[in-house]
TrEMBL record:
Residues 411-435 are annotated as: Disordered. NCBIfam families: primase_Cterm. PROSITE patterns: SF3_HELICASE_1. It comes from Alicyclobacillus acidocaldarius (strain Tc-4-1). The keyword Membrane does not apply. Residues 665-820 form the SF3 helicase domain. InterPro entries: Helicase_put_C_phage/plasmid, Helicase_SF3_DNA-vir, NrS-1_pol-like_helicase, ORF904-like_C, P-loop_NTPase, RepB-like_DNA_primase_dom. Keywords: ATP-binding, Hydrolase, Nucleotide-binding. This is Phage/plasmid primase, P4 family. GO terms for molecular function: ATP binding; hydrolase activity. Residues 424-433 have a biased composition (Polar residues).
Amino acid sequence: MPEQEVVYGDSRISVEFLKWWFEGVFGYVEIRPIPNRREDEEAARMALRWRRSFQTNRLEDVEDHLRAGYQDAIMARCGWYFGVCPRYKPVKREEDGRWVGGSREDVDCCRGAWADIDDHGDEDDAQRMKHAERALEVLADLGIVPSAVVRSGGGQGKHLYFRFTKSVDASTGVQISRKLARVLGSDPAVADAARVLRIPGSLHTKSGTPILVKIESQNDDRYDPDAFEHALDEAAAAMGIDTSESIDLRTDDSRSTEAWDPVPIDFIRENLPALCPRMALYIAEPNVVTEPVWHKMASLLKSLNPDSVLFHEWSKGYNAGPDKRYRFPETERKFRSSQGKPIRCSTFHALDPLQLCQECPHFAKQTSPATVVRRAYAKAIGQTGIYGMPRSSKEEIRLDGRQVDGITFDRLPSGDPNMKRTVGTDNATQSPGEWTEVEREDDVIVRDPEVFDVLRGLDETKEVVPRDYWRTQGMRFEIAKSWMQHSGNRAVRYDEERDKWELTHWDFAKILYQDFPSYYFYSGINLYNGSYYEFRKGDEEVVKRFIGEALASRNKGWATMGTINHIFSLYKNFLEADEERNVDDAKVVDVFDADPVFPVLNGLLDVSDGHPVLRDFTPDCRVTWKINVEWWPQWAEGPRRWTPAMKQAQEDIDEFLSLYEFTPETLQALLEALGYTLARFDMREQRYFILLGPGYNGKGTFLRILEAMCGKFVQTVTLQELAENRFAAGRLARAAVNIVADASNQTLKDTETIKKLTGNDLLTAEMKYRDAFPFRPRLKLWMAANYLPPTPDTSFGFFRRPLIFPFHKQFPVMNADWEKRLHTKEALSYLFFLAVKYYLKMRLDGRRLTESPEMRRVRLDYWANNDVVQAAIQNGIFEFPTHDRDADQYVVPRALATKAIELFAEELGRKKVSTSTLFERLRSNYGNESSEKVGNFAGSGEPIRNPCGRIPVVEG
């Protein structure tokens, strides 16, 4: 039987089309697989895993994703779709299962217009297709042809795309696409900002037979949005189509009640103050109305009638001073800017608490004055329910007035405690006629149209920059002007009375705070710089300079020290009041640099599953440093993928490491230690590293390479400074590595700071001119020494920590440029690759850092030189049983053990230790050294057993 040919989608076609459609647009493209059948639970689960977003300027990343998805057997039971409009943030699934980032609220702009001419298998398919073809001919006569035509399946269905010369805002794009649907007679529901359409190059498999979604035609034609809409109007007129008729869509996102029938002005004038004592008070005494309440009144009145006459009539009496009185232009603008939503009584009460409201029967119902007026008017004309509801909403209301399809037409929340709300999520199905009372001011006040024009119109292409874009850029001075044009201008308001633009300080500070991630800890502002959170000396001046440059780019008169300082004080207030971003100093270690990633020059190397994957920088990954190397996966693929420079680097690094003439186990230990050092998220080992040996043996060369890798995140505080200088620890709070290139051999008197630094214990940092703060260090200690410093601390807790590498081989004389070759980006990248490789192998094997026999011998000698008890053990004065069954043979009198250590100390010229010190040392210290035969003595003939079950003895 011949082998059946397998058909896959073509990811190359898909990516080329997406690049073409989203050319020049900033944002995220949503890729969303949808199962062909709802009951296919397996495909549905897999589809959730493959749903992702990609940046429009990094669409090459989509190809691997789609290629793998197109070849997956389960995903062959899904259709592959993309979001026609770019989102300003990526899609992700919240803990409660909701998806965010894929709804129409997440769309900032439209790249063009689109339509779906589909054949549903209905009797009128032929007539509809014929009408669409006729409409396309009329448009062609007007100079409008589709920029792309895509065959969406096995029938005659087509997706049409018309690219614009410039992006338009989401509402304008939807309006034009709806008008296009009207002219073509196509599905109007497709004209939705969150719409997804089949990806060209994918397979249509709903019928069971795989059919490639093909591009029938494609060109580079672009149309001015206004000219395109005008052409639609001309085509509609020629074909006798009325495009002014509203298209009632369930996909319309508007929650305004302006689509409802208006209540007569006279009825509102007479009955609103009679039914609502609060409104009666505001009408009688307009000077008591605050600006937020005034905004709410505008929305409330507009929800009842779109005529502004009552808003003016009831605002005219306002006169609170020379600059605080009624002005017609400002009042009219406020009314126009409001969204016309019914504001609830509780919202007014929260802004302006009044006793008379609590005595009102309507207040207890948690309703809106607008709802009460509409009910009253309905009753007055002999109707029931809420007056003015559009037909699409009326059809969903039962006769008893209860909610239908999860929609409550009286008030929110629903009376049903089990009702799950979907409004505001991807699954929202709120209709344009819905009567939804609102509470938040953001839902009522919209941006002034003129400000919106400034926001979008200051660059030549009028492209819309996604709101999430600035989060990833960092507060860099070179983008201050661009940020002001696209985002900071939202804090600018036009004063019609004075005929000039004014800056709102509070809004400007809030926008700055929201757009640029920052955290406050260690007595300073830590700003995201595009790759990591950075603290710079003069942190406050950095923010102030950015504010000044942004303001000066719009109006130099705004960039005064008084204005800048005031905005900064507001910005800092936001930061300090934010419980998440004002981090407790002692808890910084739990928040920052805790994720298993290596931040490198070209991204974040994620090793969370033990296998390195390079990801894009994101402020959501909270790291405070960056390694000065690039991760090149080609190293793992072998020399065939290496460039000549990479091959040379590999030879140079291998030669360099071979000069040390380490044993294989010691070389493994060195590379593991380097990888562990760069794994700042890992503090489990509680070790520090010493390179020991005489001069000219490569200690300094190795440390200079480590310093080149870690750059400005290196400090050089000596052990003696840590013990004696109270400001020394403060220099290590933000450091990743501390390197001492030539350690002193002076006595190390206080070792507690070293134990705390390597043990991740709490320290106090003192800095000049700043408040002291507690911190838990995330750094690794390295030093080079000709001799090891003596210390009075003989504890196991200190001597278990150093990993000492014996550098005893003297280097030959090398060329002048030899060390320079070790610092090339290729050489540093290769050494980093080796370090990560050995580190991950260690962790995947479940091991700790390797200590070779020669390293262990040096460490125990260092211990013995400072501790006579350890020296006695190494010289065989004490022996230990291997098994408990031999314990009885290893019991000696206490006096004999004490005498033996006294004689041994006298022979070495060392200070004697007391009996209690000897026994305590054996109990608490040596039993922890797993390969040491350490236990306890019993002076009475009865062995004292420790957790290790071992008993030390004294030779006779």
